[in-house]
Amino acid sequence: MVTVPLELNTSEIRAERRVTFYHLNWLSYQQILQALGENNRAHLFYDRGTLEITMPLEEHEFYRELIGLFIRILVVELGLKIKSMGSTTLAREDLERGAEPDNAYYIQNQAKVLGKRINLTEDPPPDLVVEVDITHTDINKLALYARLGVPELWRFNGQIWRIYRLDKGVYQEGEFSPTFPLVPKTKLYEFLATAKEDEVRAEKNLRAWLVSQLAK
């Protein structure tokens, strides 16, 4: 049983390609977003003049997909509701900040945004955002998402899963997810390690564990 962070030689990984631009105003950022369109694979992050464009590669997408599946299983087995946002652009012109996360979810606030096209000047931010960053990023994503008001942020670097809870405008790292307090960190590590060999078995094992915990 795997109960420790995954071992990974990140120097050999082709996980993301990144390019960063500086001194770009909000209008330029919006023009680039429009030029790339909604269906492009790149993720754009903008923070007061700095624009980072990230192109996720195979390793990045592997973890992104599986962490998304992990969350979906938790939601289903725990009887929760969810609105998935994927990499939808989360932008606030008044804050001069924008992000396209790997995944974003409304869970606690699902009912408030059901059937709506999200506008962050009127609607709450997603309850949970997931970022996979295996290679270095020039954007301070903790500060970015804190300013956007995201209550919970997960970050995974290919080895370590970090959980952050927003407290008075600042993220505090914790050992348990506020959204899924039943689930220890070891379960994600086990899930990912098993999924490298057999994704179906990883899903079955996680569902079985959740059922056993809920039956206690």
UniProtKB/TrEMBL annotation:
The keyword Protein transport does not apply. GO terms for molecular function: endonuclease activity. Keywords: Endonuclease, Hydrolase, Nuclease. It comes from the Bacteria. It holds the Pfam family Uma2. Residues 33-178 form the Putative restriction endonuclease domain. This is Uma2 family endonuclease. It comes from Microcystis aeruginosa G11-04.
